[in-house]
Task: inverse folding
C-alpha cells in the first residue's frame, strides 16, 4: 500500500529523508550574485518615491493657501496704524505719502549694479530662487551660527514685503519660494528690480524708495545724479538703516559703504582702482543738510519702526499693519516739553540731552527724549548716540558683580588709598584725595574710583562681563576689545545709550529680572495674523543683589555725602547713580577746553515703578563743554521734573526686602573685616548694613572695649597725678598800701592750667568778692578808709587758701609811708617784705605773657597802663618787672624807670612825673587780665 502525500513537495522531502547517509547528493546550487544589493537599491528607490510623493503633497499643501500675485499690491502700499499703550488711541498712521516712484530706465546703472552686487549677485541667472546661494547660506549658518547669512534673492524680498507675514516658518519660506517663481514667470527682471528699488526702506522719517533716499541724503533732484560712492552708501543701508545711517553713524556707514564697493569690484561691476578712489571720499562729504522738522511722537515712532523691521522683516510703510506700542502719551508730551525748553532752562541752543523712561515691571518704554532742535532722521541722543557712562557703570561692572558672586554686604570695607591699575598706571579719585577705610555703600555714594576698581578686580573681568551681558550690555562686542580694568570707571571706547542704561538699571528695581526695553508689544497683519513682540523676562541677578544694590544707590540720593542729593523728591523712594566723563588731552588742546570742563554728565535713577536714564552734553567737542553749575546739574534737574510728573496720581510703591537679605548693626569700617558693635562702641560709629542671609558677622569688636580699659587706666593715673598736683598747689596773696591805695596780688606755685582763684576782701563795710577766674592776678583798692584794716583771702578750686591783711594809716601819717603788712602766717610769704613784693610782681609778669588787656577808661590817669608801675621805678634799684609786662602801652612812661628816689607805690595810677600827691578818690579799677601759668597744661587721652 503506497504512502499518501499531500503534495509532490512532501513526497520529495520524504524521498530525500530515506536516502542513505554518506552518498553524494550532487553539486550544490550556486546563489545568484547581487541579490542583497538589488534589494537595498529597490528599497531606497521605493522610499525615495514615497518621499517624493509625500514631499510633493506637502509642498502643494503648503502653497495651497498662498496669496496670489497681485499687481496692485506690488506697486501700491498700505499705511500702518500705530496705537498708544491703551490699545485704542491711534497716535499716527504711517504709509506711502512720502514715496516717489521712479521707472527702471531712470535708475542709473551704477545704482543697479551696487544693489545687485550687495543683495543678489546672481539676480539675472536664477528664476526667483538661487539654490547656489541657499547652499552657501546654509554652510555659513552652520559655520558661523544661524542668521549669519541670508539666502533670499531680490525677487524673494519683493514677495516677502508684499504678500507674506514675517513669521519664520517652513511654510512661509516655501510659499515665498513658490511666489518668487510665479513672480519671475509673470514679470521681467527689469520690472522686478524696479519694484524692489521703489519699495525698499532706507531711513527713519518715512524714507523709502531709491528716489526719496537720494533726495533725503544727498539733496539731488534725481537719482540719476548719484555718484559711485553715494550709490554704494545707499545700497548698504537696507541691511540696517539706523546702524549704517551716514548722518548719525558715520564710522559704521563708512565700513558698510566700503564693503559694497569691494563687492562691486569683486564681481566685475567696477575696477578695484575705482573702488579705492571712491573709498577716499568722506562718507559725510556730500550729505545734504537735514532741515525737515519732526512731528509729534516722531522720536518714539522712529524706534517703533526700527523694532518692527528688526523683529518681523515687515515694512511698516507698506504692509498695512496695526502696531501696538508702549507709548504713554502723557509722559511723552511732558518729555517733549522738557526738550523744548518749557520745563527747564537749557544754557544754550547747542546743549543737548537724551532720555528714556521705562516701566520697571514690563520693560516697556513710556517716553523718549531724542534731543533738542531735532530734524527728521537726525541723531537720536536717546537711542543712537553712544557716550562713555562714567561712574554710572559702577553698579553694573563693579559692585553688582561683587554682591552677586562674592556675596559682599553693603558695608563691605574697602580702603580708599593711593593705588594703580595692574599695569602700573595710577588711578585717582575726582577730588584727588583719599578717604581711607570706607564701606562699599559710602564708596558708591561718594563715587570714589579706587574702591570701584578694587571691586572690579575682586570679581574679575569675566564675571563683570557676564553680569553686564545679562543686563543687555555687550560692551566688548561693540567696542571690539576685551574687558579691561578701565571699564570699572566707564573708560571704554564706544560707550552706551540712555536706552541701554535705562534697561539695565530697571532690573535693579525689578528684583533682578531683566526685561529688554521695547516700544512694540504686538503687530497685527492684514490677514489677521498676530505676532507677540513682548520680550520674555530673564533673571539677570539674584534678588539679594538687586535689593542691596538698590539700597546702596538710595544712599547716593539720601546721604549727606551722596552725589545726587538734588533729586530728592518728597513722597518718592529714589535710587540712582551719577556719572561724568572727561575730554581727551587732544580735545582739550584743540578746542581750548579747561581742565574742569566735562564732556558728558549722566544720571540714571529709578523708583519702584519707573527708571529714567538722562544724558546731557554737546554733540561734538567744538560745540562746547559742561562747566557751569546749571550745566553740571541739568541731568539731575531733568530727572527730578520727569519722575515727579509721571508719578503723580499713581501708587508710589517701595523697594521690598527679600527673605534672602538681613539687616545688622556693625561698626563702621576701620579695617578689612566688619564686626558687630560692643557695648563700648560710640553710637556715632555704629551703622546698619544689609547682608546676604548667612553671611552677617558674628564677631564682636573689641576696639572700643580695649580703648575703654586703656582710658580707665589712664584716668586712674590722671586722678593720682591730679591728687598729687592738688596737694602741691600753694596759693599766695600779698597786700600793700602806698600812695593812697591798696595793691593786692595773688598767685600759686605748682598751679595747673585749669586752676581757678576766688579772692574776697573784708573791710569796715563788710565782706565782698574781689575776683574769680583762672590764673594769677591783681587788684587795686583806691581811697581806702584811713585807719581801717583790710583783709584778703585767696582760695583755689582745689581747696587751698592763703590770706593777707593791711592797715591803712591815719590821715595824720605821711602819704609816702609804706604800710605794707606781711601776709598772715600761711607759709607762702618771704621774710623780707620788699623782696616779697618784688617776687610777686615778677611771677605775675611771667604769667601774663602776651596778654594785651588794658585798664578801664574810668582810670583817672591819662597814661593807660600806668597802674603797672608808671614812672615810680625806684625802690633802691629794685625794678618792678611785673608792671613792665602787664600790657603797658606808654613807652615814654617806661623809659622813666631810671632809678627814682621815691619808694615804689602800689598800682595807684600815679602820674608820669612821679608825683606822690594823692589823687582824686576813685572806685576800684579793673586789674589786668590774669596771666596764664607757665606750667604745661595737662592733656587727656
Result:
Amino acid at each position: 500500500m503506497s504512502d499518501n502525500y499531500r503534495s509532490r513537495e512532501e513526497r520529495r522531502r520524504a524521498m530525500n529523508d530515506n536516502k542513505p547517509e554518506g552518498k553524494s547528493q550532487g553539486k550544490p546550487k550556486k546563489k545568484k550574485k547581487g541579490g542583497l544589493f538589488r534589494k537595498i537599491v529597490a528599497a531606497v528607490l521605493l522610499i525615495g518615491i514615497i518621499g517624493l510623493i509625500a514631499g510633493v503633497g506637502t509642498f502643494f499643501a503648503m502653497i495651497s493657501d498662498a496669496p496670489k500675485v497681485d499687481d496692485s499690491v506690488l506697486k501700491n502700499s498700505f499705511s500702518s496704524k500705530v496705537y498708544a499703550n491703551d490699545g485704542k488711541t491711534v497716535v499716527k498712521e504711517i504709509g506711502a505719502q512720502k514715496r516717489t516712484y521712479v521707472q527702471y530706465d531712470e535708475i542709473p546703472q551704477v545704482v543697479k549694479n551696487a544693489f545687485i552686487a550687495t543683495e543678489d549677485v546672481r539676480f539675472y541667472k536664477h528664476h526667483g530662487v538661487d539654490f547656489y546661494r541657499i547652499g552657501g547660506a546654509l554652510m555659513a549658518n552652520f559655520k558661523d551660527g544661524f542668521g549669519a547669512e541670508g539666502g533670499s534673492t531680490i525677487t524673494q524680498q519683493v514677495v516677502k514685503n508684499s504678500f507674506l507675514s514675517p513669521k519664520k516658518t517652513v511654510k512661509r519660506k516655501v510659499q515665498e519660494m513658490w511666489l518668487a517663481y510665479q513672480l519671475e514667470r509673470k514679470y521681467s527682471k527689469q520690472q522686478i528690480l524696479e519694484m524692489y528699488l521703489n519699495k525698499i526702506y532706507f531711513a527713519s522719517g518715512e524714507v523709502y524708495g531709491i528716489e526719496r533716499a537720494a533726495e533725503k541724503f544727498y539733496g539731488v533732484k534725481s537719482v540719476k545724479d548719484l555718484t559711485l560712492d553715494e550709490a554704494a552708501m545707499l545700497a548698504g543701508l537696507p541691511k540696517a538703516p539706523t546702524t549704517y545711517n551716514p548722518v548719525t553713524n558715520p564710522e559704521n556707514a563708512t565700513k558698510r559703504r566700503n564693503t559694497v564697493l569691494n563687492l562691486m569690484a569683486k564681481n566685475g561691476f567696477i575696477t578695484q582702482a575705482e573702488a579705492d578712489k571712491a573709498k577716499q571720499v568722506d562718507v559725510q562729504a556730500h550729505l545734504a543738510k537735514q532741515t525737515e522738522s519732526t512731528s509729534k511722537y516722531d522720536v518714539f515712532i522712529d524706534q517703533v519702526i526700527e523694532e518692527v523691521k528688526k523683529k518681523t522683516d515687515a515694512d511698516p510703510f507698506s504692509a498695512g499693519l496695526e502696531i501696538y506700542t508702549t507709548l504713554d502719551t502723557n509722559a511723552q508730551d511732558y518729555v517733549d516739553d522738557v526738550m523744548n525748553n518749557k520745563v527747564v532752562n537749557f544754557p544754550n541752543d547747542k546743549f543737548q540731552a537724551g532720555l528714556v523712561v521705562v516701566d520697571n515691571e514690563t520693560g516697556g518704554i513710556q517716553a523718549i527724549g531724542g534731543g533738542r532742535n531735532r530734524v527728521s532722521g537726525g541723531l537720536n541722543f536717546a537711542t543712537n548716540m553712544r557716550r562713555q557712562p562714567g561712574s554710572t557703570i559702577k553698579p553694573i561692572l563693579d559692585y553688582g558683580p561683587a554682591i552677586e558672586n562674592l556675596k559682599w554686604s553693603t558695608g563691605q570695607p574697602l580702603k580708599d588709598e593711593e593705588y594703580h591699575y595692574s599695569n602700573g598706571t595710577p588711578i585717582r579719585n575726582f577730588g584727588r584725595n583719599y578717604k581711607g577705610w570706607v564701606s562699599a555703600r559710602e564708596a558708591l555714594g561718594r563715587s570714589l574710583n579706587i574702591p570701584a576698581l578694587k571691586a572690579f578686580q575682586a570679581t574679575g573681568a569675566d564675571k563683570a562681563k557676564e553680569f553686564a551681558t545679562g543686563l543687555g550690555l555687550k560692551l566688548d562686542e561693540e567696542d571690539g576689545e576685551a574687558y579691561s580694568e578701565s571699564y570699572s570707571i566707564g573708560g571704554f571706547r564706544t560707550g552706551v545709550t540712555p536706552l541701554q542704561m535705562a534697561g539695565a538699571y530697571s532690573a535693579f528695581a525689578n528684583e533682578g529680572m531683566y526685561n529688554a526695553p521695547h516700544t512694540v508689544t504686538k503687530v497685527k497683519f492684514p490677514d489677521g495674523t498676530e505676532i507677540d513682540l513682548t520680550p520674555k523676562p530673564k533673571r539677570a541677578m539674584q534678588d539679594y543683589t538687586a535689593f542691596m544694590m538698590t539700597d546702596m544707590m538710595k544712599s547716593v540720593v539720601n546721604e549727606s555725602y551722596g552725589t545726587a542729593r538734588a533729586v530728592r523728591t518728597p513722597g518718592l523712594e529714589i535710587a540712582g547713580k551719577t556719572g561724568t566723563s572727561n575730554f581727551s588731552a587732544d580735545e582739550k588742546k584743540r578746542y581750548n577746553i579747561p581742565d574742569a570742563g566735562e564732556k558728558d554728565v549722566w544720571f540714571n535713577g529709578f523708583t519702584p515703578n519707573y527708571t529714567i536714564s538722562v544724558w546731557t552734553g554737546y554733540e561734538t567737542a567744538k560745540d562746547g563743554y559742561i562747566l557751569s553749575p546749571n550745566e553740571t546739574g541739568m541731568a539731575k534737574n531733568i530727572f527730578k521734573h520727569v519722575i515727579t510728573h509721571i508719578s503723580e496720581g499713581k501708587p508710589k510703591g517701595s523697594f521690598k526686602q527679600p527673605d534672602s537679605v538681613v539687616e545688622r548693626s556693625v561698626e563702621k569700617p576701620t579695617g578689612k573685616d566688619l564686626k558687630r558693635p560692643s557695648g563700648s562702641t560710640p553710637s556715632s560709629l555704629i551703622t546698619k548694613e544689609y547682608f546676604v542671609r548667612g553671611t552677617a558677622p558674628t564677631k564682636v569688636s573689641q576696639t572700643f572695649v580695649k580703648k575703654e580699659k586703656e582710658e580707665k587706666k589712664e584716668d586712674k593715673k590722671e586722678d593720682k597725678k591730679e591728687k598729687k598736683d592738688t596737694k602741691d598747689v600753694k596759693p599766695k596773696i600779698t597786700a600793700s598800701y602806698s600812695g593812697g591805695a591798696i595793691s593786692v596780688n595773688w598767685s600759686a606755685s605748682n598751679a595747673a592750667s585749669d586752676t581757678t582763684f576766688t579772692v574776697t576782701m573784708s573791710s569796715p563795710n563788710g565782706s565782698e568778692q574781689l575776683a574769680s577766674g583762672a590764673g594769677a592776678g591783681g587788684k587795686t583798692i583806691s581811697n581806702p578808709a584811713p585807719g581801717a584794716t583790710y583783709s584778703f583771702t585767696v582760695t583755689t578750686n582745689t581747696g587751698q587758701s592763703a590770706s593777707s591783711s593791711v592797715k591803712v594809716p591815719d590821715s595824720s601819717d605821711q602819704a609816702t609811708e609804706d604800710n605794707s603788712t606781711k601776709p598772715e602766717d600761711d607759709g607762702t610769704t618771704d621774710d623780707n617784705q620788699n623782696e616779697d613784693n618784688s617776687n610777686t610782681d615778677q611771677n605775675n609778669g611771667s604769667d601774663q605773657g602776651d596778654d594785651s588787656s588794658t585798664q578801664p577808661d574810668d582810670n583817672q590817669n591819662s597814661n593807660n597802663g600806668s597802674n603797672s608801675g608808671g614812672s615810680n621805678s625806684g625802690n633802691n634799684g629794685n625794678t618792678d618787672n611785673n608792671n613792665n609786662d602787664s600790657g603797658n602801652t606808654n613807652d615814654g612812661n617806661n623809659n622813666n624807670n631810671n632809678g627814682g628816689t621815691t619808694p615804689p607805690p602800689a598800682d595807684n595810677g600815679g602820674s608820669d612825673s612821679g608825683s606822690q600827691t594823692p589823687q582824686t578818690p576813685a572806685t576800684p579799677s579793673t586789674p589786668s587780665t590774669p596771666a596764664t601759668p607757665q606750667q604745661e597744661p595737662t592733656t587727656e587721652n
Remarks:
- Residues 1-6, 20-26, 144-149, 814-941 have pLDDT under 50 and may be disordered.
- DSSP finds 28 helices and 27 strands in the chain.
- The first strand starts at residue 80 and ends at 83.
